[in-house]
Amino acid sequence: MSYSLANNKLLYLSLALLLFFSFFLYAFTLETYTIIEEFSVTVRVWFGRFYLWLGLGCVLLLVLLAISRWGSKRLGTPEERPEFSRLAWISMLYSAGMGAGILLRAVQEPVYMKLNPPIANGAPDATVALEYTFYQWGLTAWAFYAVFAIAIGYYLFVRNKKALPSTAFTALTDMITTKRVQRGVLGSIDILAILTTVFGLVAAIGLGTTQIQGGLKHLLGYEFTIGGTIAILLLISVLGATSVLLGMQRGIKVISTWNIYITVALLLFVFVQSDIPAIATRFGSAFYHYLVDFIPLSLAMGPYNPGEAFLTDWTYYYWAFWLAWAPFTGIFIARISRGRTLRELIIGVLLVPSLGTFFWFTVFGESAFDLIAAAGSYDGQFDNVFSSIFVFFESYPYQGLINTITVLLLVSFLVTSLDSAIFVLSMFTDKGTPEPSKRHRLLWSIILTIFSIGILLLGNAKADINVLIAMQKLLIITSLPFALLMVVMIGLFIRDFAKK
């Protein structure tokens, strides 16, 4: 039976906090940005290195689980089999967990890393550029998702608990004798996970919407105002709401699968027109260095330390972004992974998307390096994160068609990120049911739209900032409480899992 909207404390407290913060985004935009800016400095000074240690710990934990006898344990009963095919499963988890980001950074990040090598390991600058890009988009990002997915999936499908973030912390109630305090602790964890999810999602929506605006500006030559950007966001919100109302099979699965088809087609379009031997060589070299350097990279040790300023602008921000997405992406992955073994889940979530992402960045990055070399000089054409990929496609045939497809793919990726987040948030507030009611899905569609508009306003609070800068500062703050809780969750999961 669906959990009604009435007498739903988790829903109302979460909405109250989000609307309270939205009020300040709309009414005191500049003042809110200033507070966020100052607080983010404190967080990254005190906890930046903690993010690095947590990321490395999650990767090592998953590797140990995969190679241990525990890897054969299934999320569900021993007889259960997966609901979705491997292709549909990979498509859905990749669209939810990464999506539009690979279009946003496909060219800009490798080029930036080549021009500003973050580490000195003796490899050529182009190899270092791709190695560091792999590091920021690879195993660690997916490890955050996979750890949360495994923990929630275990309690959800093996222990038959509710699909709530607090499910992974129910062992804490053994230390608390008062029922009221128990409910308060678990409810606070659920609210924190909801807030973290919302902040992470609207950051992605804000960035993606701004890139779509950049693409349309590049294609049409039209200068968008903030009102035009909000109109694009409203379109994405309507599409996301429609998809999530259609459900997992008819909406989310279909769009996610087509995302992968189009992404692969776009990748092959660039790949077959590039220097294929050079791409293969660069991929192998960058991947080798990434694996060999992984631990010192993960801890920013010695020559692998790019400095606090660089870590703040890039790595800390990325780790905060992945952590902010971990609650909804992890639970979404758990929801679609019932019947799979831990080993299959770890390989499917940790390795397959990482390798695909590495190849994507190698193809686009190496091709961009070649374009710059052929031009004889670099005049900053790939510096703008919101338009770089559209400028890149100007060097290829059918540029108008390809750029149009890229804009549509951006919209589609944002829709799948939005609909999966709405689905998971609805699960949270609909008493942890795996199939939340349409009323909850519609309500969260509206709330996320309101909040996303507020984030766009925040990104326009000052002339010298943009949505990306605002999100870097906000996510470093909002992901910290969940990062701290994740350490507790891992400890509780290992203790409970080892008992079985």
Automatic annotation (TrEMBL):
Tell me which UniProt keywords the record has, alphabetically.
Cell membrane, Membrane, Transmembrane, Transmembrane helix, Transport
Q: Which domain of life is it from?
A: Bacteria
Q: Subcellular location, in the record's words? A: Cell membrane
Membrane topology is: Multi-pass membrane protein
Which Gene Ontology molecular-function terms are recorded? transmembrane transporter activity
The yes or no answer to whether the keyword tRNA processing is present is: no
User: Cellular component GO terms, alphabetically?
Assistant: plasma membrane
- Give TM segment ranges: 12-30, 50-67, 87-107, 134-157, 185-206, 226-246, 258-280, 316-333, 345-363, 405-429, 441-459, 474-494
Q: Pfam families of this UniProt entry?
A: BCCT
Please give the chief subcellular localization of this protein. Answer: membrane
Spell out the family assignment given in the record's similarity comment: Belongs to the BCCT transporter (TC 2.A.15) family.
Return the PANTHER family for the record.
Answer: HIGH-AFFINITY CHOLINE TRANSPORT PROTEIN, HIGH-AFFINITY CHOLINE TRANSPORT PROTEIN-RELATED
Which protein, by its recorded name, is this?
Answer: Glycine betaine transporter
